[in-house]
Write the structure tokens for this entry.
Amino acid sequence: SQQGEEDPQALSIQEGENATMNCSYKTSINNLQWYRQNSGRGLVHLILIRSNEREKHSGRLRVTLDTSKKSSSLLITASRAADTASYFCATDARGAQKLVFGQGTRLTINP
Amino acid sequence: DTGVSQDPRHKITKRGQNVTFRCDPISEHNRLYWYRQTLGQGPEFLTYFQNEAQLEKSRLLSDRFSAERPKGSFSTLEIQRTEQGDSAMYLCASSPSNLADTQYFGPGTRLTVL
């Protein structure tokens, strides 16, 4: 079963706008990661945030983590057509030796 | 290319046939993971290895599935007597030492069972 739930399931915006995706999870975690997947391809790691961190930045990406609400958000600023992809959050439940993925958000950037 | 590689990239087989996939992790990574992803879903964990030891298997991994990593380097995933429900993308990932490290994914093997 999948622990993470992404919201929205699909998001379509204009190039240049900001895109925000949310992830909720169920159990205590050590860290949370965001991955991107282009259609039919493997996953590319974007950013990892540890359970004792609240916010992290990487280029145009900003990730927040609220462990009290068991939720995270991924913000992509100044979106580009190349950002069109599916985005997944993945958590490692404490004591478990695996990543548990959500169902993903399909992001479409319209030129 | 020093990333995770998988072979083949695509496999079409008939129901009842056996298939084997190979994964070559990043060379210094001692952890190797297999995931399965069906259309429109996130990847689901199947199994993982620390060096040559298989330390955890998901209940998704029925007795028709077997994975090996004999020398602690590359790994194979075999599916016997394939069923149409086995059609999916099979993803391999590797990481250096523990779960707090990023997992690096290969391009996947897409299996279609006719």
About this structure: Chain B touches chain A through 26 residues (CB under 8 Å).
